[in-house]
TrEMBL record, chain A:
This is Branched-chain amino acid ABC transporter permease. Pfam families: BPD_transp_2. GO terms for cellular component: plasma membrane. It is a multi-pass membrane protein. It comes from the Bacteria. The chain crosses the membrane at residues 29-49, 55-74, 81-101, 107-129, 136-154, 174-193, 229-250, 262-289, 301-323. It comes from candidate division WOR-3 bacterium. The keyword Ion transport does not apply. It is found in: Cell membrane. Keywords: Cell membrane, Membrane, Transmembrane, Transmembrane helix. GO terms for molecular function: branched-chain amino acid transmembrane transporter activity. The keyword Kinase does not apply.
TrEMBL record, chain B:
The lineage of its organism: Bacteria, Bacteria division WOR-3. Pfam families: BPD_transp_2. The keyword Transmembrane applies. Keywords: Amino-acid transport, Cell membrane, Membrane, Transmembrane, Transmembrane helix, Transport. InterPro entries: ABC_transp_permease, BCAA_transport_permease. PANTHER family: AMINO ACID ABC TRANSPORTER PERMEASE PROTEIN, BRANCHED-CHAIN AMINO ACID TRANSPORT SYSTEM PERMEASE PROTEIN LIVH. This is Branched-chain amino acid ABC transporter permease. The chain crosses the membrane at residues 6-27, 34-52, 58-81, 93-115, 135-155, 198-216, 223-247, 253-274. The keyword Disulfide bond does not apply. It comes from the Bacteria. Belongs to the binding-protein-dependent transport system permease family. LivHM subfamily. It is found in: Cell membrane. Its main location: membrane.
């Protein structure tokens, strides 16, 4: 009996596009640009359609971008082998710094957001710096428990508004700024991270993840590399937090809530870790879906967890890698 | 005053030991960090509650049944989930975390949040120790924690399965070459861990009402103790439990009750700064791995 197997081959156009030849043909240029342009044009045009899609979905887009930023920062940390279970930590620190600056010193958003981003990045990096020396699950454990402990600390000592939080913060007052700011941040992070990880520095980063001892033996300080990546990630996370503080005009204990940890994680895993674009694909699927499912209440979190568990067990490569494969390769059945 | 500190410090420490053992056994033997630990703990509590109030089983039947069922569930859970992803830290962490959060939030959605959810004391009444009235349940916590530690020591040193546990923990490849089935032992360790978790749940939960947040809190406690003592070391766990237990009682008595959380946070950060692998941890830091 004849046996068959599936064979996978690169499309000719992909092979040609890896060369300088790509620049001489419109078709090849289109092949390279199309996926990127689809994303960029899509997110840039969406706010202009607010009359058609309604203000509600514009808000969903903003939330999607914020969760997308968090899941990009998760993915960057996963690149260096640091598996975080608490993006809410970066988010919450950024949110609280911004909120306090605005509430206590009445600084305007264009001052508090940069300060909150940088301050949040520095504070959370310093907090987690001792944990970088530990390997394996210890970092995950710490990132999981620190936001929970911090929220309990705020609850118990009633600092920073306690359980009430700080409300009545300055809003953006301009629809275009508050919508385009997270969109641009998302695009900059996505393409910036992809460029970073493909550079020589990015190779070292991936080396630390795959085999840290070899990287050490070359004479590179892996803790420094890990700290750099941690700092960049926490900057992005803190920016998401500071933005949402002014967007909601409120900062409180929900900033440290588990939702902000598990949703970005689910997005990154669903989309496929390791490519950044996957994290984005995941968040553009999951966040709107979770807005639709808002009626379910706390069952939503069960739903994220279910997606997360199913994806990690049976679909570990993620959606993005699947799409990418279909785009670049074709399959055929051949006889063995 | 000092009697108070002593008695409640010991009880608090014994509670910490109980709450951490289930997590530590699994991690120590098969290197799986079980982030679904809090969910298992709470599941055992609710299972007992269902047996007692819905099925009207007597207490002496409901408790062993819960512990047995949790052990079997742990065994099955290993084959359904962990078996497929064993060895890949990223997948292990995320899968168990997702399972844990999923179970806990499902309980919340089911509405397991009112005051009626509480377990009865194993033995009612109080006793006086050095002039401090103490209920039997709190005394039982200390006895059960001590008993479990003794049992675990005996089990891992004097039975075939227990020695296989230690073999897998020390060097998995050598153990396999000696004919020990690593996956079977892994599943058994998971089962033992869940059973111990169930014992902890039926012992500690009667002290208050069962709420969803207890699930997260237990995970938090187990991990804090584990980080301070060294996750895989039972001696480390015992010492860390005593440090944290007494520090928390002292802070609660001499400063203010809410300071106990500050104590935990501060001790975690302190230990990490001085000795990242915990007081008795061996495997955590890069340089310490052989």
């Amino acid at each position: 009996m004849a046996q068959y197997r599936k064979e996978r081959l690169d499309r000719p156009i992909k092979a040609r596009c890896e060369d300088i030849f790509a620049l001489t043909s419109m078709r090849e240029i289109l092949y390279l640009i199309f996926p990127r342009a689809l994303l960029i044009v899509g997110v840039l045009i969406f706010p202009l359609l607010k009359g058609v899609v309604g203000l509600y979905w514009e808000k969903v887009l903003v939330i999607t971008c914020v969760i997308g930023l968090l899941s990009l920062s998760w993915d960057l940390m996963a690149q260096v082998g640091l598996i975080s279970l608490g993006q809410a930590f970066f988010f919450g620190v950024g949110a609280y710094i911004t909120g306090i600056l605005n509430h206590k010193f009445s600084l305007p958003p264009f001052v508090t957001i940069p300060l909150g981003t940088i301050g949040g990045g520095i504070v959370s990096t310093l907090f987690l710096l001792p944990a970088l020396r530990a390997r394996g699950v210890y970092f995950s454990i710490l990132t999981l428990i620190i936001p929970l402990l911090l929220s309990r600390l705020i609850e118990a000592t009633k600092i920073f508004g306690g359980t009430e939080g700080l409300s009545g913060l300055t809003p953006f007052q301009n629809f275009w700024i508050e919508t385009y700011l997270p969109i641009f941040a998302l695009l900059v992070c996505l393409f910036g991270f992809r460029r970073l990880i493909n550079s020589d520095y990015g190779l070292i980063v991936q080396g630390v993840r795959d085999n840290d001892r070899i990287v050490m033996s070359i004479g590179i300080n892996i803790y420094k590399i890990k700290a750099h990546i941690l700092f960049i990630s926490s900057l992005v996370g803190a920016f998401a937090g500071s933005f949402i503080t002014h967007y909601y005009r409120f900062v409180g204990l929900p900033a440290f809530a588990l939702d902000y940890s598990i949703l970005p994680l689910a997005c990154a895993i669903l989309g496929g870790p390791g490519s950044f674009a996957g994290a984005l694909v995941g968040s553009f699927i999951l966040v709107p879906l979770s807005e639709v499912l808002r009626v379910l209440g706390s069952l939503r979190v069960v739903f994220y967890s279910l997606i997360l568990a199913v994806c990690i067990l049976s679909l570990p490569e993620g959606i993005f890698h699947y799409i990418q494969r279909k785009y670049h390769q074709f399959e055929r059945i051949v006889e063995i | 005053m000092w009697g108070n500190v002593l008695v409640y410090g010991v009880i608090n420490s014994a509670t910490f030991i109980l709450l951490t053992l289930g997590f530590s056994i699994v991690f120590g033997i098969s290197r799986i960090a079980n982030f679904a630990y809090g969910a298992f703990y709470l599941s055992a509590g609710y299972l007992t509650w269902v047996f007692l109030t819905k099925a009207n089983l007597p207490l002496f039947l409901a408790l062993p049944l819960t512990i047995l069922i949790m052990g079997v569930l742990g065994f099955m859970g290993y084959w359904v989930m962990i078996y497929r992803i064993r060895g890949n830290t990223l997948s292990e962490v995320i899968a168990t975390f997702a399972l844990g959060v999923g179970i806990l939030e499902f309980f919340r959605w089911m509405g397991f949040v009112t005051y009626e959810f509480s377990l009865p004391f194993l033995k009612k009444g109080t006793i006086e120790i050095v002039g401090i009235p103490l209920d039997y349940q709190r005394l039982l916590i200390v006895l059960i924690a001590g008993g479990l530690l003794a049992f675990l020591y005996f089990y891992t040193h004097h039975t075939r399965i227990g020695r296989a546990f230690r073999a897998i923990a020390q060097n998995e490849r050598t153990a396999i070459s000696l004919g020990i089935n690593s996956d079977f032992i892994g599943a058994l360790s998971f089962s033992l861990g869940t059973a111990v978790t169930a014992i902890a749940a039926v012992t500690v939960l009667p002290l208050g009402i069962i709420t969803i947040n207890i699930g997260y809190e237990v995970l938090l406690t187990a991990m804090a103790v584990g980080i301070i003592g060294g996750l895989e070391s039972i001696i480390g766990i015992v010492i860390a439990s005593f440090i944290l237990g007494f520090a928390q009682v002292l802070a609660a008595i001499y400063i203010a009750p809410h300071w106990s959380i500050v104590v935990i946070l501060a001790s975690i950060l302190g230990v990490l700064l001085v000795r990242p692998s915990g007081i008795f941890g061996k495997y955590k830091e890069l340089e310490e791995r052989v």
